Amino acid sequence: NPQTQLEEGVSHLRHAMEPYTAWCQDLYAKAKPQLEKAVEQGFEFLQNPPDGFYPRLGVIGFAGILGLFLARGSKIKKLVYPAGFMGIGASMYYPQQAVAVAKVAGTQLYDWSLQGYIAVESLWKDNAKKKKSGKKDDKGSH
């Protein structure tokens, strides 16, 4: 029973994708127990929340919706405004956690900006070297 060209293509694709599917299955098997535990803990927390949790959640959620409403126009605003408004709302209710998050976020932003600066600087230097070497080659070939 000879295979059609479509069957051969699908077979080739399955063999090519096999390492990736195995990696995904392994990752899923490792993450599944942790996710199930997190969902279970979240469910237990919502069954017996601390006093004032739902009003706080409402204010923080409303801040996010307000951010979406005010973020007309660019897609960046639609990402920044809701997150920023929710962050401000959460920091009103959870100031100690907000300070801890701000410290970590500040350090992370500094690291990312430094990495970006180094990457741009290396690209700039590489382009300058290419231009100089290109000009020398042009002069030498005449």
Q: Can you put this structure into words, describing what you see?
A:
- This protein is mainly alpha-helical and 142 residues long.
- It has 3 domains: 1-48; 51-93; 95-142.
- Helices cover 89% and strands 0% of the residues.
- The protein has 4 helices and no strands.
- The chain has helices at 5-47, 53-70, 75-93, 95-141.
- The longest helix is centred in the last third of the chain and has 47 residues, at 95-141.
- The radius of gyration is 27 Å and the shape is extended.
- The model has no long low-confidence stretch (mean pLDDT 88).
- Component of the MICOS complex, a large protein complex of the mitochondrial inner membrane that plays crucial roles in the maintenance of crista junctions, inner membrane architecture, and formation of contact sites to the outer membrane.
- Component of the mitochondrial contact site and cristae organizing system (MICOS) complex.
